[in-house]
Amino acid sequence: MAPLVECVAVAGLDISKGLVPSPSLTAESDEHCSPFECSYNAHVLCRHGSTVIDDEALTLFCLPWGVRFAVPPAPAPIFYSFALTLQDGSKLFGCKAVVYERVCSDDIVSALTLLMEIHMIEM
Predict the structure, then answer these.
(1) 67 with 39: CB under 8 angstroms?
(2) What is 22-60 written as a DSSP string?
(3) What are the CA-CA distances from residue 38 to residues 25, 61, 91, 105, 107 (Å)?
(4) CB burial class (10 A; 0-12, 13-18, 19+) of residue 106?
(5) How far, CA to CA in Å, does 57 sit from each of 11, 49, 52, 61?
(6) What is the pLDDT of residues 38-97, one digit of tens each?
(7) Residue 109 has what DSSP assignment?
(8) What is the Cα–Cα distance from 78 to 25, expressed in whole angstroms?
(9) Is the pLDDT score of 29 beyond 60?
(10) φ and ψ at 49, to 5 degrees?
(11) Helix then strand then coil, % of the chain, to nearest 5
């Protein structure tokens, strides 16, 4: 009998890598968008179990628009279920939840504040 869960992963902003804008996820027309409208690089933060999907693909699947920030009140959590057909024809069933959490890193808060100040000057 197959296990109920084969892999659990958490994707999000890797504080150790800093706040890196994701130009591939931001439209050219949004080049000067607010720091709260831009996308930032996401990473797999932790993983338990094995899967045939590598971290980069898993990150893009979980957070296709990258990491985004919101001012309170944060958007409600969103839940998705999915079925992926892998290259060998096998199926991978899963679910994902997208949640917003409070930013607790002083470095990230400072970086967002600085980006917002620059954005206001450029407007």
Answers:
(1) yes
(2) -GGGS-GGGTT--TTTS-B--EEEEEEE--SS-HHHHHH
(3) 8, 18, 33, 19, 18
(4) exposed
(5) 11, 16, 10, 6
(6) 889 999 998 887 667 788 888 888 888 889 888 888 889 989 887 778 788 887 777 889
(7) H
(8) 20
(9) no
(10) 95, 175
(11) 30, 25, 45
Q: How many helices (H) and strands (E) does the chain have?
A: 2, 4
Cβ atoms 36, 70 nearer than 8 A: yes
pLDDT at 43: 92
Q: How confident is the model at residue 24 (pLDDT cuts 50, 70, 90)?
A: low
For residue 19, the one-letter residue type is L
Cα end-to-end distance, the chain, whole Å: 59
Mean local confidence (pLDDT), 96-113: 88
Residue type, 64: P
Reading the block at residue 67, the tokens are 């990491």
